[in-house]
Automatic annotation (TrEMBL):
Residues 1-26 form the signal peptide. Keywords: Signal. Coiled coil: none annotated. The keyword Signal applies. One of its GO terms (cellular component) is cell outer membrane. The lineage of its organism: Bacteria, Pseudomonadati, Pseudomonadota, Alphaproteobacteria, Sphingomonadales. This is Outer membrane usher protein.
């Protein structure tokens, strides 16, 4: 619309100033039926042909300025069909074109390559006005089109700046309304189990075992804890496992914690129990939607307008419409290992071209400029019988990793306490041949001595033109005898070094084979350990797969050669049977598994029968998902060889449930894993049941008799849209948008109310003060008690009949836009529901 307004204004100015419409423009308009923007007009101009290169325009045969005096117009500057900005254009009496030099540089700055922009600035030095001839030395043509009243710049591809095109939709702007979490929310999960021993040493019901965990969120602060409660069991009835306060700085992507820390480690570090404070950054935790691996920038050039299909590993991930220019194609949705990237390019003349790239990435790599870290400091707090035991012994641990380039990620780590220290470095390098990774660490333990450790890995995925692929990996690791991270008091590493590797080859889409080996060199009299394996897999049909392997192992128990075979047959989409045989102990095992649905009413069942030289056994396990909890049952029995005498029979009954609070509402539901939402029906829904996240496979939750539903699985920092449905609602009931969108913070809670007071539809016939129908007009309905609320739009048909939706009980004023500006007052009864029939209503007398 803005472009048409600008063009119409310029056209009017041209007619007013020049005294007539340019002849060529008038001829084109007549031929195009007066459609200024028609395809025929664009085709005649040639503006879109040849990658933006215009032929000698027909309008040059006519004089641009027949007035005999200088004319100044403000016209749009265009690069093909791309609008660059407005520019003042001066048309001399002799048709010479001039325009401000600095304004020309401004509108072209983002289109031209930086060095070309600098050349323009240098050539324009001292000039205030320039013309097309000043651009000719750089190969840029400039022409004025009086038909479209535009100044067209025709820029060669090599003069254009490189532009970036994102393949995957990263950093998306979130459109629409996102629900806000409650300022205060809390939940507690209880997962309990009860064992019944039918045969064994101690028969009967055993003491129940309950795992408790929960969190409270107040504003941006989260307090979380977990514990085990086993009343009547051995030792303490209650054991607290850990408690902490958590604050996430989402702007800088840093998590601050205080209390019993959840220590993360890198390289050869240990993960000690620490009570203190920590700073932590992990993109997978705090920004899981961001791709932090190398984005794989690759440059390519288009000489003409083209359609580009991006194919990654044989799958099309995006289709782009691009104008001529230089491009950096970034943000590939890479998979682990080698990636085959193909660009299928089809230009506007029908010419096609294929461009291929290949890059190797590893999941542990970071893109250039990104950093991850963890810093933990405090006192040692090992877990005791009733909870963490807080000591006076200080301890610290930390690591830092950064992507120096898209190919190289470096890191360092350190740990220390009062009697030991350890420090190390790590590196990950991605090359066209594969990924190299290494860790080097040094330690010192008082009274023990120093030590060192080293490992290196190599990974490669080889993709062949047929689409099949091979995998190859190698590793080597060495630890000195006395090397130890913190909290190891008597380090004694049994092996001098270990090395190994593996190779897998796909012969066809149905057949693969592989080999892997591992060798550990013992020290101080310990024997060496050898392990070698050959494996193969054959997909017999769409339903059956056969796997087999042979193994050789040599260790302190001697030498052993064995074989293993398994057959998996799918019985349907969700069920399968598996049978396997292992020669090591003549073990035969048959199993069956099935699952049905998701959400409420879903279940899964597994059953196994096993027989070997050491005995026999049978096990059954089943789980059922209900609206308010998760139920489970399992039984395990062992027998003597050949299913003779029973040795042990144990059954376990399980229950998992939660109690959640958000926005003053309580709800009972299944266990909560991170963030959650409580969904409640508005009173206007009556006894109608609200269904949460309905799908063809099942529902996540429903409000039911308790009039509240818990949506238990909302992962933090991941956008989610949850659909809602209402079963058995009164006709005309307004349930809102039918979904809610969230972007949860860590362990946050939401209260979602479905429906509102504004769910009434009023029907009737409007008549003006003369009794005539108020026909075919619109108006607005405003609630007199709440004039600040948005007004509802009302329409009438030819007979004056109207339907006003989104009303609530109370008094409403309707103002119509007919000639008499008729005004009506509606009184919606307090007990009104759904649709209210008002019959004929008469306009109020004007005051």
């Amino acid at each position: 619309m803005r472009g048409w307004t600008r063009r119409a204004w310029a056209l009017g100015a041209s007619v007013f100033i020049l005294g007539r419409v340019p002849v060529a423009w008038a001829e084109a308009t007549e031929l195009d039926g007066g459609n200024l923007d028609s395809e025929a007009s664009a085709s005649k101009s040639g503006a879109a042909q040849g990658g933006g290169q215009l032929p000698a325009p027909a309008f040059r045969a006519q004089k641009l300025n027949p007035t005999g005096r200088t004319v100044v117009l403000t016209v749009p500057a265009k690069d093909g069909s791309n609008y660059l900005g407005d520019i003042p254009l001066q048309i001399e009496a002799d048709d010479r074109l001039t325009f401000p030099a600095m304004r020309a540089v401004q509108v072209l700055a983002n289109t031209l390559a930086p060095d070309i922009v600098e050349n323009l600035r240098a050539s324009f030095a001292g000039k205030t006005q320039v013309g097309p001839e000043d651009f000719a030395p750089l190969g840029i043509q400039v022409a004025y089109d009086p038909r479209t009243l535009e100044l067209q710049f025709q820029i060669p591809t090599e003069r254009r700046a490189s532009r970036s095109v994102s393949v995957s939709a990263l950093d998306r702007t979130r459109l629409g309304e996102i629900a806000q979490p409650a300022d205060f929310s809390a939940y507690i999960n209880m997962r309990s189990s009860l064992d019944l021993i039918e045969d064994g040493v101690d028969t009967g019901f055993q003491s129940p075992n309950m795992l408790l965990d929960g969190a409270v969120r107040l504003g941006p602060i989260v307090a979380e804890s977990d514990a085990i409660w086993q009343p009547g069991g051995f030792g303490a009835d209650f054991q607290r496992l850990g408690s902490r306060l958590v604050f996430d700085d989402t702007k800088h992507l840093v998590r601050f914690s205080a209390g019993d820390l959840e220590t993360q480690s890198r390289g050869f570090q240990s993960a000690p129990d620490i009570a203190g404070i920590s700073l932590f950054r992990s993109y997978s935790v705090l920004n899981p939607q961001q791709i932090v691996r190398p984005r794989g920038d690759r440059a390519f050039r288009l000489d003409r307008a083209s359609t580009v299909e991006v194919i990654v590993n044989g799958q099309q991930v995006r289709r782009l419409q691009l104008t001529p220019g230089n491009y950096n194609l970034r943000d590939f949705p890479f998979t682990q290992g080698a990636n085959d990237i193909r660009l299928n390019i089809l230009d506007d003349t029908g010419r096609s071209e294929v461009v291929r790239f290949n890059i190797f990435v590893d999941q542990t790599q970071l893109a250039k400029g990104l950093s991850e870290f963890g810093v933990y400091a405090g006192v040692k707090a090992p877990l005791g019988l009733s909870g963490p035991r807080y000591s006076n012994d200080w301890i610290a641990s930390g690591y830092f990793r950064r992507g120096l380039t898209d190919a190289l990620t470096l890191g360092a780590n350190v740990q220390a306490d009062a009697r030991s220290r350890m420090a190390g470095i790590e590196a990950v390098l991605g090359t066209p041949f594969g990924t190299l990774g290494t860790n080097v660490s040094f330690s010192k333990v008082d009274g023990i001595g120093t030590g060192h450790a080293f490992n290196a890995t190599f990974q490669r995925l080889i993709q062949r033109p047929s689409g099949l692929g091979d995998t190859f990996n190698l590793f080597v690791e060495r630890r000195s005898r006395r090397f130890a991270p913190v909290n190891f008091f008597l380090p004694d590493n049994p092996y001098r070094y270990e090395l190994g590797g593996g190779y897998t080859h796909s012969f066809t889409t149905s057949l693969y084979g592989g080999v892997d080996a591992r060798f550990s060199k013992g020290r101080a009299g310990r024997p060496d350990v050898h392990s070698y394996r050959l494996s193969a897999g054959w997909r017999l049909s769409d339903r059956a797969t056969l796997n087999a392997e042979t193994r050789y192992q040599q260790d302190s128990l001697g030498k052993d050669v064995s074989a293993f075979m398994s057959l998996v047959v799918r019985l349907g989409r969700y069920s399968s049977v598996r049978s396997e045989f292992d020669t090591r102990d003549n073990r035969y095992r048959a199993s069956y598994q099935t699952l049905n649905g998701s959400g409420i009413g879903s279940y899964n069942v597994t059953a196994d029968v096993e027989r070997s030289d050491n005995g026999a056994g049978i096990s059954v396990n089943g789980n059922y998902v209900a609206n308010r909890g998760e139920l489970g049952f399992s039984h395990f029995g062992t027998y003597t060889r050949g299913f003779g005498d029973s040795q042990n029979q144990r059954s376990t009954f399980r229950l998992g449930t939660s109690l959640a609070l958000a926005g003053g509402a309580l709800s009972v539901g299944r266990p909560i894993y991170d963030s959650f939402a409580i969904v409640k029906p508005h009173k206007s829904l009556g006894k109608a049941d609200v269904i949460v996240d309905a799908s063809t496979f099942g529902n996540a939750a429903n409000t039911g008799a308790l009039r509240a539903a818990t949506m238990p699985s909302l992962p933090s920092y991941s956008e989610r849209t949850v659909p809602l449905d209402v079963r058995d609602a009164v006709p005309g009931t307004d349930i809102g948008q039918g979904s809610f969108r969230v972007f949860p913070s860590y362990r946050s809670g939401y209260l979602i109310t479905v429906g509102s007071d504004y769910n009434i539809t009023a029907l009737g016939v409007m008549r003006n003060i003369d009794g005539e129908p108020v026909s075919l007009v619109s108006g607005t309905a405003t609630e007199l008690a709440h004039p600040e609320r948005p007004a509802q739009t009302v329409f009438t048909n030819r007979a004056g009949r109207f339907g006003a939706t989104g009303l609530a009980a109370g008094k409403w004023k309707i103002e119509m836009l007919d000639a008499a500006r008729s005004t009506f007052i509606l009184n919606i009864p307090a007990d009104a529901k759904g649709i209210v029939q008002l019959g004929d209503i008469k306009a109020e007398e004007s005051k």
